[in-house]
Amino acid sequence: MLETLNRIQMNNLLSSQRIGRIACTDCGRPYVVPVTYSYDGKYIYGQSTEGMNINLLRKNPDVCFEVDQLQNLGNWQSVNVLGKFEELDNSEAQKARDLLHRHLFPLLTDYTVHGYGHAVETPAKEHKLPVIYRIRIRKMTGTAEKH
Q1: CA–CA distance from 140 to each of 58, 68, 88, 96, 110 (Å)?
Q2: CB-based burial label for 81 (10 Å; 0-12, 13-18, 19+)
Q3: Better-scored residue on pLDDT, 118 or 19
Q4: Which CATH code of 2.30.110.10, 3.60.20.20, 3.40.30.10, 2.60.40.10 fits the domain covering 2-145?
Q5: Nearest 5°: phi and psi at 56?
Q6: pLDDT, average across residues 35-50
Q7: Contact 134, 5 (CB under 8 A)
Q8: What does the pLDDT look like over 132-146, one tens digit per residue?
Q9: How does pLDDT run across 46-92, given as a tens digit for each residue?
Q10: Are strands 75-87 and 131-145 parallel, antiparallel or unpaired?
């Protein structure tokens, strides 16, 4: 049976997960990217390297962010967030980096989820500094199915 999640349930789901999907558009075609993130109860924080998703987010900062937890096809939860992309710098970016580091470091397997530049230098791939951002939440909805 489908049910609507309340605010506490949505906050719990956003706080417990580390991978979500961010959807953006150039007003002509949608683009969805899986991202690692951290949630502090007010904002969703993330980082990415320069590329198509950052270019689209800069042009049109209106986003949809989605996270879910699946136990099986009859037991799952999902939260959708409508919000606004905000690129961070200076002290705001440092706070976001610290939060991401605390939440994601235990899962760290690649430098792309870590804002401190622990990249292995390889001649074939140029290391790019991450873009630190947050999503200002405008509206959240949540759905679950429990059997």
Answers
A1: 22, 13, 22, 21, 30
A2: buried
A3: 19
A4: 2.30.110.10
A5: -65, -40
A6: 93
A7: no
A8: 999 999 999 999 998
A9: 999 888 999 999 999 999 999 999 999 899 999 999 999 999 999 99
A10: antiparallel
Contact yes or no for 118/28 (Cβ under 8 A): no
Q: How does pLDDT run across 99-134, given as a tens digit for each residue?
A: 888 876 655 555 554 445 544 454 555 666 789 999
- HSE (side-chain half, CA atoms, 13 Å) at 55: 6
Across the chain, where does the E strand assignment appear? 2-4, 19-25, 30-39, 43-48, 62-72, 75-87, 131-145
* Domain boundaries of the chain, sorted by first residue: 2-145
According to DSSP, the residues that pair with 141 across neighbouring strands are 80
